Amino acid sequence: MGIRSNSPSSSFSSSSSTCCSRFLSSALRSKRVISPSEKTARDNSGHGLSRRLGVFDLILLGIGASIGAGIFVVTGTVAHDVGPAVTLSFIFAGASCVINALCYAELASRFPAVVGGAYLYTYTAFNELTAFLVFSQLMLDYHIGAASIARSLANYIVTFLEIFPVFKDNIPKWIGHGLNIGNVLSINALAPILLILLTLILCLGVRESSAVNSFMTVTKIIIVIVVIFAGAFEVDVSNWSPFVPNGIRPVFTGATVVFFAYVGFDAVANSAEESKKPQRDLPIGIIGSLLVCIALYIGVCLVITGMVPYSLLGEEAPLAEAFKSKGLKFVSVLISIGAIAGLTTALLVGLYVQSRLYLGLGRDGLLPAIFAKVHPKRHTPLHSQIWVGCVASIMAGLLNVRMLSHILSVGTLTGYSVVSACVVVLRWKGKTNIEVSSAKRREGVICLIAVAVSGFAAGLLFRYETSIIFVILAIIVAVGASLALHFRQKTSHNRKKTSDHFMSRTVRHGFVRRRLSTEVISGPVLTCLSDIITLNFL
């Protein structure tokens, strides 16, 4: 009897242990990189996406995702607190994003042309569980971001229409501005309509959606250039003195705010499967779009701080008010049009990226198979695209997402940090077939820990307003650790290369010479150094 009574419990424990072991094995497995032959077979079967995007389309895609209405607002609001040195804030933030862009560019050129972006890189470098968590964080950000941008776009459109006397004070709040019902509900009828229209454009195909994005982005760039040149003739150089009126600390604080004005270049990495020459064009698209954004932001900063003393800049529409004060009211109309175009492209690209991420998880079996289906004629993931549009429409039409939008920075910084770590891990995995002593591996681990701890310490010290000397000291420790590893491995590699060259001259036929790889881990360590330090500052 005793044996029979224990039998169910033992079988239950064994089944539960089996389930746990299966879960752990699935959660900890990494993704195998798809081979070129498998990719070709998928494309020929009609289940792949069509290759329509060239390098110019990819650059415009990144610019369209990055530059929204913020270029006309954030530049002035930050300048009000920082002064003319807001230009330095944008330069520091742009330099940090360039480091992240280099990580994305390397991974984009390393991987085959499949969708996934940061999710794909994490799945390959780490494991399935980490990749799914990264996807969940990205989707939370993208869904909330799409709803927030759609409501802002509706607000800008209604505000622009109210310029005309016919619509002045005749448009109800629930149409575009939003009618709040308590703290959670907020009715906005125009935002879901805009999302449905953009979703339909994306469902038509990547060629049509790329054409719309290119037109709107070029329009936006032209307007920004016109604003810069029109304002350049109104610049008073005396407004730039003193250049750093409030000290260096507000400059770095401003950099933490304007950092998110550059977010969007990572969208290019998700268009790998629709790029004509992904290994060549994706890095160019990522870096090129970011450099264009940096140049435009710096131009606007110099103009707005030169036109009006920074202390007189407004909070709501500083750039438009600056031009109105100079009697250039027509420029304020152009700014409104540019803001509408900027928000439209940011929303369009955001919806595009979400559907491709859902497609990637559907193919990997982490989501229902319906998300992996691609339309045989349009070559777009219709089910994923419609799902994304519906979720964003419901949130934008019914919910007050202003409070939720404040957590968007968490997912952005998490994604960038994980991608930087993927560079290190994948390069480390690439050295598995090479003789690497335990001492060298230990050196690499110690260096990574030193960089991470120093970066975290620098951000923490800056956050609690300690002396800037301690912050600089933490950065010096991190840089020193990376440089020590770099020169240590470079010296070791040169010695090994010299020894290998000497042996190759002494051995005769019949012996096989070992070829050592020149890839070392210090490269990504130096790349991730600035990323870790800057993100901890943020």
UniProtKB/TrEMBL annotation:
Transmembrane segments: 58-79, 85-107, 119-140, 184-206, 218-235, 247-265, 286-310, 330-353, 382-401, 407-428, 444-462, 468-487
Chief place of localization: membrane
UniProt keyword Cell membrane, yes or no: no
Record's keyword terms, sorted: Membrane, Transmembrane, Transmembrane helix
Membrane topology note: Multi-pass membrane protein
Subcellular location: Membrane
Molecular functions per Gene Ontology: transmembrane transporter activity
Entry-linked Pfam families: AA_permease_2
One Gene Ontology term, aspect cellular component: membrane
Family: Belongs to the amino acid-polyamine-organocation (APC) superfamily. Cationic amino acid transporter (CAT) (TC 2.A.3.3) family.
Name this protein carries in UniProt: Cationic amino acid transporter
